[in-house]
């Protein structure tokens, strides 16, 4: 409705509503009825579907499948509930192992091409269906799935052209294949009716079922990378939790005779429990305070609580604690055919007495693994923002200063906030700039800029870095005690409304109207790195290209460097995380239960260009030095006898930069004034985090700019979070 009022809908606008051909298919309730009527003798459960686990609870699908004579499961997960309930399991091929095709949201046709041959002889869904349709053997040397995709392509393209087929394979999509735009008009009366039919029941609470940003609907439950990456809102790992607004959580406590303050909402590394009553059954969930959440509403992500779904899904505990072989809590029993997205009028209460959370496990709290327990900047202008009006004024000042004093860094309001506003002027007896010609030997100097205007905290950079640099997972127990290994962490802060001095009542504030501020942080490659001066064995040193490098074989694990890093960007291998299963971390080589090594298939996961670290070694972001070296070698090979061996701008893209769909990360040679990163760093929005320490960080940030409508409530609070910090 808002986009319609603003005129954002149309073929040439931000939102284009299209008309597509969607074949009608029955609902899962129709299938359940057919099974119950005895009309289904053979049932094939394919792809990522797991109805035994995720079907609406009132269908009782786990009981229905037992009525089918033959149940066949096709998929990559052989331990999901549907696979275990089937008579036959056919190993499926991953989509990167098979041919296929898809339509984008606007209808654009795209071809899926296999990256590798199936590792375990998996069968794709298309291959399985083709086999059911015909028992004719394919011609020698042909792939029936590829031929089927090619036939579909000919129909959609409307022409049998080998050239167009090859062009589509190269581009990844078929040009001009989107669905036609629709002349859609919003029916306000219908929309009002839909809202009126679903008004929250005042006698209870509203439960909103959300797909999880990591495991989605549960299909990725056995992926350790996704399990351990922190939730961008709560920073929770290895679990799901009920998210409740501050005022609602205090209300639940008051109903139990408790007068909670904000400090009572979380007990160190344990969360309180709530009881949700549905269909006469009690369901328990850990609860986390959700800043800015709607009142009387509770959000719970689906996809967790799967039993015996794999070694990772069983939350391996290094302490050996029995967790019931399940990760998180199953929300699907609360979802019925009439409440797939949300349920209203639900009875919810805070748990104060011990309850049987799982068989043999009685408690009134639940251990949770959070990577960031604080949510305020505590008077430090780590994240900086501003308004468009302020930015326009700074741009004019910057252009004038650049014209008068070219090549010099010029102060802006974004660079002089917080403690940076108290930095004294340059008082050194010499300036490095004066000696630049004497020391400049042409070596490229690497740097990075991160645009907070574009970053939305999705954590894609964290996972990309983990994949590229062989970073291990450590398990829930180790995360709880602060031993996660991510080189890129996503800090997030919540900024409430404050007075003109940035003050608010931290104990009484309900944080109903907050701004979420995500900020990726890794090693900033300080030129005056405090970690280097305290290492007793020179394991962390500075390269001629300005990188703060690690010599892993010299590190003796004193951890002085981590203690001296103001950004807390270093990670220490307390155990052989890359070598041992997570439940064997505390087992030494002399133990009878010693188990080391990894499965052969997992070895293929490692990047051969990056050293796999061992116990007792410190590690951190390296600016993907292996990619830098690869580019330098390639450039030298191309140069041959020429002296032009500088890597061209844009040729090196670090892993986090490639993964960032918002293009918030820019990397390159800061000694080249024409490079993209150099130009970005000239923006008046550019600032160095903790600059007052004098570390000269190579990674800098671009402040976030907002353009508030001053007629809206609290408009004077937008874009002023860091401005009020002195």
Question: What would you say this structure looks like, in words?
Answer:
There is one protein chain. The chain has 726 residues and is α+β, with helices and mostly antiparallel strands. It has four domains: 2-171, 3-Layer(aba) Sandwich (Rossmann fold), CATH 3.40.50; 198-370, Barwin-like endoglucanases, CATH 2.40.40.20; 385-453 and 626-717, Alpha-Beta Plaits (2-Layer Sandwich); 476-494 and 520-623, Alpha-Beta Plaits (2-Layer Sandwich), CATH 3.30.70.20. Helices cover 22% and strands 17% of the residues. The strands form ten sheets. The protein has a six-stranded mixed beta barrel with strand order 6-12-8-11-10-13. The chain is globular, with a radius of gyration of 28 Å. The two termini are 41 Å apart. The relative contact order is 0.10.
Helical content, roughly?
Answer: 10-25%
Q: Rg to the nearest angstrom? A: 28 Å
Low-confidence stretches: 316-325
Q: Any guess at the CATH architecture of the largest domain?
A: Beta Barrel
In angstroms, what separates the terminal alpha carbons?
41 Å
User: What is the number of beta strands?
Assistant: 29
| Mean pLDDT, all residues | 84
Instruction: Write down the CATH class of the largest domain.
Output: Mainly Beta
How is the biggest beta sheet arranged?
6 strands, mixed, barrel
Shape: globular
Which terms would index this structure?
726 residues, alpha+beta, Rossmann fold, Barwin-like endoglucanases, Alpha-Beta Plaits, 4 domains, 4-stranded mixed sheet, 21 helices, 22% helix
């Amino acid at each position: 409705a808002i986009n319609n009022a603003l005129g954002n809908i149309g073929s040439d606008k931000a939102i284009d509503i299209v008309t597509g051909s969607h074949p009608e298919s029955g609902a899962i309730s129709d299938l359940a009825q057919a099974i119950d009527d005895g009309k289904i003798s053979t049932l094939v459960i394919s792809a990522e579907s797991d109805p035994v686990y995720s079907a609406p609870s009132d269908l009782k699908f786990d009981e229905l499948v037992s009525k089918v004579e033959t149940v066949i499961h096709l998929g990559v997960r052989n331990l999901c509930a549907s696979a275990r309930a089937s008579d036959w399991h056919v190993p499926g091929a991953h989509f990167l192992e098979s041919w296929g095709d898809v339509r984008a949201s606007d209808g654009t046709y795209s071809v899926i091409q296999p990256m590798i041959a199936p590792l375990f002889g998996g069968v794709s869904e298309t291959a399985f269906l083709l086999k059911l349709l015909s028992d004719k053997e394919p011609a020698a040397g042909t792939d029936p799935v590829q031929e089927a995709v090619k036939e579909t392509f000919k129909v959609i393209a409307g022409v049998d052209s080998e050239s167009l087929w090859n062009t589509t394979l190269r581009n990844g999509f078929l040009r001009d294949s989107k669905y036609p735009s629709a002349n859609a008009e919003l029916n306000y009366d219908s929309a009002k009716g839909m809202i009126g039919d679903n008004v929250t029941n005042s006698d209870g609470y509203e439960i909103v079922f959300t797909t999880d940003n990591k495991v989605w609907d549960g299909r990725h439950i056995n992926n350790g990378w996704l399990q351990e990456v922190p939730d961008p809102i709560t920073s929770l790992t290895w679990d799901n939790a009920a998210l409740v607004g501050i005022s609602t959580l205090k209300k639940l406590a008051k109903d139990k005779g408790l007068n909670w303050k904000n400090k009572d909402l979380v007990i160190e590394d344990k969360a309180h429990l709530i009881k949700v009553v549905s269909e006469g059954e009690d369901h328990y969930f850990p609860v986390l305070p959700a800043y800015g959440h709607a009142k009387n509403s509770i959000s719970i992500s689906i996809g967790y609580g799967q039993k015996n779904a794999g070694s990772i899904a069983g939350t391996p505990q290094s302490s050996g604690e029995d967790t019931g072989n399940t990760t998180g809590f199953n929300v699907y029993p609360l979802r019925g055919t009439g409440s797939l997205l949300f349920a209203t009028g639900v009875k919810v209460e805070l748990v104060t007495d011990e309850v049987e959370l799982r068989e043999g496990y009685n408690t009134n709290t639940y251990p949770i693994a959070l990577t960031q327990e604080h949510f305020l900047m505590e008077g430090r202008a780590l994240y900086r923002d501003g308004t468009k009006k302020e930015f326009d004024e700074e741009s004019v000042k910057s252009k004038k200063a650049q014209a008068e004093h070219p090549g010099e860094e010029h102060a802006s309001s974004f660079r002089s906030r917080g403690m940076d506003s108290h930095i004294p002027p340059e008082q050194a007896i010499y300036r490095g700039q004066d000696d630049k010609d004497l020391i400049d030997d042409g070596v490229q100097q690497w740097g990075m800029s991160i645009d907070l205007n574009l970053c939305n905290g999705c954590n894609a950079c964290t996972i990309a870095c983990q994949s590229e640099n062989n970073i291990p997972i450590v398990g829930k127990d180790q995360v709880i005690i602060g031993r996660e290994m991510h080189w890129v962490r996503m800090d997030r802060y919540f900024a409430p409304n404050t007075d003109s001095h940035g003050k608010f009542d931290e104990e009484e504030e309900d944080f109903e109207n907050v701004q979420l501020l995500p900020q990726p942080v890794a090693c900033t490659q300080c030129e005056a790195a405090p970690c280097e001066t305290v290492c007793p064995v020179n394991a962390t040193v500075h390269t001629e290209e300005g990188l703060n490098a690690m010599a892993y074989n010299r590190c003796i694990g004193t951890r002085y460097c981590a203690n001296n890093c103001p950004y807390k960007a270093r990670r220490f291998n307390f155990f052989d995380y890359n070598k041992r299963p997570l439940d064997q971390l505390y087992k030494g080589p002399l133990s009878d239960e010693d188990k080391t090594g990894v499965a052969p298939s997992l070895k293929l996961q490692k990047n051969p260009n990056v050293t796999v670290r061992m116990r007792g070694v410190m590690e951190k972001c390296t600016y993907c030095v292996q990619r830098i070296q690869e580019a330098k070698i390639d450039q030298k090979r191309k140069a041959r006898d020429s002296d032009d061996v500088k890597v061209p701008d844009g040729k090196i893209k670090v892993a986090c930069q490639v993964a960032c769909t918002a293009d918030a990360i820019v990397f390159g040679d800061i000694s080249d004034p024409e490079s993209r990163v150099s130009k970005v760093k000239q923006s008046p929005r550019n600032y160095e985090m903790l600059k007052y320490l004098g570390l000269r960080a190579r990674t800098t940030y671009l402040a976030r700019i907002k353009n508030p409508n001053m007629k809206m409530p609290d408009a004077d609070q937008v874009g002023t979070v860091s401005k009020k910090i002195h």
